[in-house]
């Protein structure tokens, strides 16, 4: 049976014949590549977009992630590419390095039957040398994040003078991450006669303004998903207190028949902590977060694909764009605080028609998050219980039986060992069943095959009640402190309400340039002409030096200690404690990449940590 693109939604229609890719006007080379990978049926957005782009029209596409947008713009671009031209003909802007790499891989897959197509990913965190060498040799398509693309434009290393196609992918995400100014600047540096496609899951006023200013009489296409989560994914949840999580996960790993698994946590520090605990329990687990080098990330993902690794512990940002066939299970070890993250997370499984399982751990204080997810996805999650010791033992015995059955199938080796056992029985006067049991002990080692019974129900309920109270106390009394357990001190920066600055911009810029983490930020108070930010009292001088040239909204922040005690003025833009993601953020609180690290851009928005240093504003 022919398959569709893993992220596609096939066209539905009563009594309508479903078009094929060959009906859309694509050339033979592209069609052959699609046939090689088994794609025959285009998604709704592909069927509507491809003929328009082939016909030279600009397109404004409103579609959720997972509707097949990448093929919708990649296929017509490849079909019209002039491979003899050495300067870039197509530029695709994406909000994150993960999405940029995913788009790059798609272009290369669809260009498999074409000769001389060169696609270059351009993103922060990768050395300039590789990118500069490729640009000097000549590339046809550049896929990059706005920050690094701007760097190359400033250095004069990226020539867009002969650009024919421009794509803004997930444009609303780029705006949320603070890339608005960069995107506007890049658009202004491209030829007026280029063909432009803009794709966005939502259509805020700023996206509408950009489309009116930079697109030429675009055809607007809107594709709505029937549901936000795949029907192929079984969604369950587990009510569990915080101290129970590790044991609950271990038991789930015992009883669930999984191949590959991603376990999502909220912070980068928790990724390695949990991965280490799983390795100590005998599982092949690794951690990835937004801080790891791209080469290391690629090696880890390759190990997951090849089966050398079974469990990946990840943050949201690190797993964005990750597509591995082996992923049968997704576990939300920390339930996400927004429904969009939930949809992205569980979308790592159940792809291309395969089935998948999603299990979410929910503490008593997080019931409201569960309700929000069910309401947004319009799909109730089924409650499950922590597997009992009996459940685990049944699974272990079943696997033990399977191992014996598999060994018995190799009769040649069985015959060899039968003689050895007979020799032992004859010389030691022991019955064969005892010898078999002794061999099982040797094979099992020091780890018991079976778990002891769980405590009586009443005792277990009392323990869970104690743990639940611990959870509530933990949420109610926890006082944020900087790394190392020190104290906060107020610092003044010379941007405020007049610059329309927001807490997320302040956190993004300082975290990016100074290497600060979420726990390094206390309260943020935004005044008319300046702002007060609580930072660690023992902030190193080298960090202060790194922040000396930091700009927010194009203005130097001039960070310096403030001798006055912190007094929050409140208000809609500032004030209040800078709160942890597990509390859902606060007014004026920072809700960023949930990776424990903000991403600051020139205007203080979010961007890749290594994208580029601050630059002087253009005039």
Automatic annotation (TrEMBL):
One of its GO terms (cellular component) is cytosol. Keywords: ATP-binding, Cytoplasm, Helicase, Hydrolase, Nucleotide-binding, RNA-binding, Stress response. It catalyses: ATP + H2O = ADP + phosphate + H(+). Residues 1-22, 447-491, 555-619 are annotated as: Disordered. InterPro entries: CsdA_RRM (IPR034415), DbpA/CsdA_RNA-bd_dom (IPR005580), DEAD/DEAH_box_helicase_dom (IPR011545), DEAD/DEAH_RhlB (IPR044742), DEAD_box_RNA_helicases (IPR050547), DeaD_dimer (IPR057325), DEAD_helicase_DeaD (IPR028618), Helicase_ATP-bd (IPR014001). Residues 245-392 form the Helicase C-terminal domain. CDD domains: DEADc, RRM_EcCsdA_like, SF2_C_DEAD. Its EC number is 3.6.4.13. SMART domains: DEXDc, HELICc. Residues 455-482, 577-619 have a biased composition (Basic and acidic residues). One of its GO terms (biological process) is RNA catabolic process. Residues 19-47 form the DEAD-box RNA helicase Q domain. A motif (Q motif) lies at residues 19-47. It is found in: Cytoplasm. Transmembrane segments: none annotated. One of its GO terms (molecular function) is ATP binding. DEAD-box RNA helicase involved in various cellular processes at low temperature, including ribosome biogenesis, mRNA degradation and translation initiation. Belongs to the DEAD box helicase family. DeaD/CsdA subfamily. This is ATP-dependent RNA helicase DeaD. It comes from Microbacterium barkeri.
């Amino acid at each position: 049976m022919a398959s569709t693109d893993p992220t596609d939604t096939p066209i539905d229609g009563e009594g309508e014949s479903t078009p094929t890719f060959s009906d859309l006007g694509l050339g033979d080379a592209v069609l052959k590549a699609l046939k090689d990978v088994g794609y025959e049926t285009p998604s709704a957005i592909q069927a509507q977009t491809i003929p328009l782009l082939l016909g030279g029209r600009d397109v404004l596409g409103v579609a959720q992630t997972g509707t097949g947008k990448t093929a919708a713009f990649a296929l017509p671009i490849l079909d019209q590419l002039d491979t003899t031209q050495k300067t870039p003909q197509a530029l695709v802007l994406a909000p994150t390095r993960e999405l940029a790499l995913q788009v790059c891989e798609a272009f290369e897959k669809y260009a498999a039957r074409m000769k001389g197509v060169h696609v270059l990913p351009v993103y922060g965190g990768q050395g300039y040398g590789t990118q500069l060498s490729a640009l000097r040799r000549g590339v046809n398509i550049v896929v990059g994040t706005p920050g690094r693309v701007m760097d190359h434009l400033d250095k004069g290393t990226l020539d867009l003078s002969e650009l024919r196609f421009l794509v803004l992918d997930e444009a609303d995400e780029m705006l949320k991450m603070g890339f608005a100014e960069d995107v506007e600047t890049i658009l202004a540096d491209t030829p007026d006669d280029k063909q432009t496609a803009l794709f966005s899951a939502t259509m805020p006023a700023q996206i509408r303004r950009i489309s009116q200013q930079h697109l030429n009489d675009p055809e607007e296409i809107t594709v709505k998903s029937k549901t936000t989560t795949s029907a192929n994914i079984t969604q369950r949840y587990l009510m569990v207190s915080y101290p129970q999580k590790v044991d609950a996960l271990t038991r789930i790993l015992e009883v669930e028949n999984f191949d590959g698994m991603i376990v999502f946590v909220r912070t980068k520090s928790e990724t390695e902590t949990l991965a280490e605990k799983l390795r100590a329990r005998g599982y092949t687990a690794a951690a990835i977060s937004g801080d790891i080098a791209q080469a290391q990330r690629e090696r880890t993902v390759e190990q997951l694909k090849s089966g050398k690794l079974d469990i990946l512990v990840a943050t949201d940002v690190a797993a964005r764009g990750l597509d591995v066939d082996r992923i049968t299970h997704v576990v939300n070890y920390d339930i996400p605080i927004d429904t969009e993250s939930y949809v992205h997370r569980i979308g790592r499984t159940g792809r291309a028609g395969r089935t998948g399982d999603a299990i979410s751990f929910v503490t008593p204080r997080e019931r409201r998050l569960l309700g929000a997810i069910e309401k947004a996805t319009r799909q109730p999650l089924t409650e499950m219980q922590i597997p009992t010791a009996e459940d685990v033992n049944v699974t272990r015995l079943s696997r033990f039986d399977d191992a014996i059955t598999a060994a018995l199938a190799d009769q040649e080796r069985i015959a060899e060992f039968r003689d050895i056992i007979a020799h032992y029985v004859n010389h030691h006067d022991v019955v064969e069943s005892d010898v078999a049991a002794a061999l099982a002990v040797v094979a099992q080692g020091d780890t018991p095959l079976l778990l002891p019974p769980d405590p009586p129900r009443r005792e277990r309920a009392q323990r869970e009640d104690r743990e639940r109270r611990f959870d509530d106390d933990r949420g109610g009394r926890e006082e944020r402190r900087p790394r190392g357990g020190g104290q906060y001190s107020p610092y003044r920066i010379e941007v405020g309400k007049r610059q329309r600055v927001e807490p997320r911009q302040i956190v993004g810029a300082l975290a990016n340039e100074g290497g600060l983490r979420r726990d390094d930020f206390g309260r943020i108070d935004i005044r008319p002409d300046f702002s007060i930010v609580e930072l660690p009292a023992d902030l190193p001088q080298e960090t202060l030096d790194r922040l000396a040239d930091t700009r927010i909204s194009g203005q130097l922040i001039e960070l310096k200690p403030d001798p006055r005690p912190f007094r929050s003025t409140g208000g809609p833009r500032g004030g209040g404690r800078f709160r942890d993601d597990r509390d859902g953020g606060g007014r004026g609180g920072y809700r960023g990449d949930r990776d424990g690290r903000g991403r600051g851009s020139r205007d203080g928005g979010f961007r890749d940590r290594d994208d580029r240093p601050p630059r002087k504003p253009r005039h």
